[in-house]
Amino acid sequence: MVPFVIGGMIVWLVIGLVLLGFRDSLVEQGREAWLTICLTGFLVGLPGLALMIVHDRNRRLRRAATDSAER
Q: What is the torsional sign of CA 53, 59, 62, 67?
């Protein structure tokens, strides 16, 4: 699951960096919130990343316990 979260965070980051180049145009059109949306998407990914790291670790531990119990 971790690669999916990282991938999503990278997408938000890249889109935000691209939009940063068009910042003046976005402000003129009243769409400066788009940059905030990209930043928020990236920042929301951080707790998601932490959650998926814990989830993957727990899944590995459960599988290891199951494998050792079967032996």
A: negative
* Per-residue tokens: 50: 């932490």
CA–CA distance, 26 with 17 (Å, rounded to integer): 13
Q: What is the mean pLDDT of residues 17-23?
A: 95
Residue 1 is given by DSSP the state -
Name the phi and psi angles at 22, rounded to 5: -105, 25
Global pTM value: 0.79
Tokens standing for 36?
A: 């905030």
What number of H helices and E strands is found in the chain? 3, 0
Q: If you compute the radius of gyration of the chain from its CA atoms, what whole number of angstroms results?
A: 19
Interhelix angle 2-20/33-70, rounded to 10 degrees, is 170
CA 43 to chain centre: 7
